[in-house]
Amino acid sequence: MMKDSELEVRKIQQAAAQIRKDSIWMSTRAGCGHLAPALSIAEIVAALYLGVMRHNPQQPNWPDRDRFILSKGHGCLALYSILAQTGYFDRRRLREFCSTYDTPLPGHPERKLPGVEANTGSLGHGIALGMGMALGARLDGRKYRVFVLTGDGELQEGSNWEAAMAVARYGLDNLVVIVDRNQLQLGGFTEEIGRLEPLAAKWAAFGWSTKVVDGHDVVALLATLQGVPPEEGKPTAVIAHTVKGKGLPLAENKVEWHYKVLTREQYEALKDELQLGELLDDCPA
Amino acid sequence: MTARHESTRSAFIDALLQAGSIPNSDIVVVAADSHSRYGDFVKRFPERSFNVGIAEQTMIGVAAGLALIGKTVVTTAYANFLTFRALEQIRVDIAAEKLNVKLVGTDTGFAAAWSGYTHLALEDMAAIRALPHIVIVDPADAREAFEATCAILEYRGPVYLRLRGRQEEPSLPVYAGPFRIGEGKVLMEGRDVLLIACGSAVYESLKAAQLLKETGRTATVVDMATVKPLDVSLLLELASSIPRVVTVENHNITGGLGTAVAELLAEKALGTRLLRLGLRNRFGTAGSEEMLKKEFRLDAEGIATSVKEFLDGGNKDENYYRRRPPGI
After folding, report:
1. B94-144 per-position pLDDT tens digit
2. Average pLDDT of chain B to the nearest whole number
3. Cβ of A117 under 8 Å from any chain B Cβ?
4. Domains with residue ranges and CATH for chain A
5. DSSP 3-state of A9
6. Domains and CATH numbers, chain B
7. In chain A, what are the helix, strand and coil shares in percent, each to the nearest 5?
8. Nearest CA to B123 among B306, B229, B252, B10?
9. For residues B328 and B137, what is the distance between their CA atoms, to the nearest angstrom?
10. Contact A199/A179 with Cβ under 8 angstroms?
11. Pick from A106, A254, B177, B328: most CB atoms within 10 A?
12. Would you call B89 and A128 a contact, using CB atoms and an 8 Å cutoff?
């Protein structure tokens, strides 16, 4: 018999696999979307919603819930999938992704969809937004935590670092930033465009407890994220090494797949291999 | 004209303290090194006062985060740095979600005086006015700044409040009733010209109206403290009986009060003639407030002269429209 912890890991891995299938299905149907940036964060998002965060999909506005801000808003396919999987809304609504006027599932997340905490899409906003929520928790004497997921290329925006300084100055150990370190950005490899390394040392120098994990290793993610804050009085930065496009071999680690989706023909050809559902169904399999 | 002198900044602090002292007040302030602009609020309510350092973008992001969990959030900084440095955060985080955040820009108009064009806020309203949902208030004097602050703290939604420096300013010699968001106030009634002003230009416009009176012209003077949304019904009513309209603002004539009035009058095709007084496609420069107002003809004498020329059919300033950047 499997131990509870093994069951939890298995469940998260299955949710991550479902995120990938949902993301491919939504983006192929819509003919648009940032697919590869969603595939790299599947395990991170699944681990947060199924193994780390305190939240209640039946009460999306529960004041004591942990908050998640997808600062790299273009990764929203993964967020939409996990919100549907955990019951924030009917899975059939995934077909609204970029397909209906004023859709609650646009190309970057907005609060009109239950479960979305902040409008994002312009990079470099999430940490300051999260800081406001984390300060509010302290002010109101609430125990919730705020998890902010940023891209790695996103860290080239200076606003992240001014916010990082301010968060450390206030010692907000209820704030966790996870960096999706997939090494790629829209225009190429991060280290060739706007060098980020030594990235862990930068966060440490800014006064953050810093952890480095394999962002696809659910066991490692849980061990790190369930243990925050590792140091009282310090915010936590988790650098999660990932592969952009993970799970879709033709997209993995490819610059051109930042904003690219499968053609319907490619989808049909990959359907069996990736166990994808019918494109014309009401919702992804 | 003589009246009580007080700064709009101190009036703002008085109102903030009053509102913040109410039991269970949810008012929180966030500064970008600009804690002093909150006066004693920071000392009285340290747990509700945050300072993120010289980082306006973070100030606005943090304010949005606090507003998202239900706080009434007040932010303040030099108007230029607040509006331009953090414009994108204001747009994405605050305006689109109509969050309950008050953006208080200080040192607007010529208040920054000797600091030069980097600090002289003369385009700030244009930036904010381009964004949906944000109310813009430019109070005429300290009394109005106090009442306006009380009103915007009660209002649930984003507001841009224009304050000036710590300098004392003359109070308006007339009181046309309590401040209400979206309502202009008629301070003086006349027949020949309609003067629509905001901010400290209201006081100068009243003085200009007195100068005009000495030359036999009478003016209706309106304090249009809420630049957005405009008091459309008041404007249309007045402009339909006084077809000579002049706007006066300590701001570029592009994007602020003058533009708002021009848009309205043009769309309604009332057949009015309009003169917009303010900076014309220029930045500010270093000088005392008096020097700057004189240079840009925004002191009482300058306004009166411009209005006289306008009523006499001159002052077309066609160069403004013809002026082009070099090489074009």
Report:
1. 999 999 999 999 999 999 999 999 999 999 999 999 999 999 999 999 999
2. 94
3. yes
4. 4-274 (3.40.50.970)
5. helix
6. 6-170 (3.40.50.970), 185-320 (3.40.50.920)
7. 45, 10, 45
8. B252
9. 37
10. yes
11. A106
12. yes
